[in-house]
Amino acid sequence: MTFTTRFAPSPTGPLHLGHAYSALLAHDMAREAGGTFLLRIEDTDIARARPEWEAQIYDDLHWLGLAWPEPVLRQSEHFARYDATLDGLAARGLLYPCCCTRADIRAALSAPQEGVAAEAPYPGTCRGRPMSDRRPGDALRLNLPRALAEVGPDLGAFTDLGPVHPGTHRLDAAALTATQGDAVLGRKEIGTVSYVLAAVLDDAWQGITHVVRGADLFEITFLQVLLQKLLQLPTPSYYHHKLIRDEHGKRLAKRDDSRAIATYRAEGATPGDIRRLVGL
Ligand code: GLU
């Protein structure tokens, strides 16, 4: 069986222990399976991605002992390819421009956090707007009711091989409507794309067979599998792993600089110490 996986960080802050766990786990699984571990830089959020964070990602991962084939896929170099997909979806009547400012929803889609998407499905205010009405600053949203109708009654399923949500998960129209709603696929910066769509396109483009990532992204997988169906792309296997939490049980976020790999390195920790800290 082929096994190709990836670690796909966004260069919007320092890598912390949670990222180290994700990258090490994916790398170890690929090695055990005789497969391939890829690194992908998810820098579609052009307002927040920084070259210095990207450089730090390469440096931290090399220090951890990880290796990957070059060149690395940097999503900011592929906007034209993503745009062609958006054009195709628009031509099928599945997108509409949206000017609603929902900073929280956008934040959730560019750096998904546990539970956020579940709390904030978009109410569909702009759903009646035609694409010809798109103005600078408008995002592009998926018309979920139309997308569900187009895919038909069998919305598909995915298998999770991880310990947190093991088993086969069927997509369900009511659940998708309640948790995801009309997701942003095209970011308000015209010509750019949201995380959720770029990741789906690149998982297929790179031949990813196993997506290994944190359980905070479990809910969004349902939306990503729906996009795979709409775009006739294969559905990989998923492995959502446990989240690394701080001593208060809170999930680590990019702002937790105290748990940044760079901080541990500066304090003299070894890669073996990091492995032990995350339970590998
Ligand atoms: N770029 C995403 C993040 O840093 C990861 C996406 C994924 O693994 O699918 O949260």
Poorly predicted runs of 5 or more residues: none
Strand pairing plus helix content: what structural class? alpha/beta
Bound molecules: glutamic acid
The protein's oligomeric status is single chain
Order the strands across the largest sheet as they lie in space.
Answer: 1-2-3
Written description of the protein model:
- Helix content is 38%, strand content 15%.
- The protein is built from eleven helices and ten strands.
- It has two domains: 1-76 and 245-280, Rossmann fold; 78-205, Rossmann fold.
- With 280 residues, the protein is an alpha/beta fold.
- The chain starts with a strand and ends with a helix.
- The strands form four sheets. It has a three-stranded parallel beta sheet with strand order 1-2-3.
Structure keywords:
280 residues, single chain, Rossmann fold, globular, 2 domains, 3-stranded parallel beta sheet, alpha/beta
What is this structure, in a nutshell?
This protein is of the alpha/beta class.
Annotate the secondary structure layout.
Elements: E1 4-7, H1 17-32, E2 36-41, H2 51-63, E3 73-74, H3 79-91, E4 95-98, H4 103-110, H5 116-119, E5 139-142, H6 144-151, E6 157-160, E7 167-170, H7 173-179, E8 184-186, H8 195-205, E9 210-214, H9 218-230, E10 237-241, H10 261-266, H11 271-277
Parallel strand pairs: 1-2, 2-3, 9-10
Antiparallel strand pairs: 4-5, 5-8, 6-7
Bound molecules: glutamic acid (GLU).
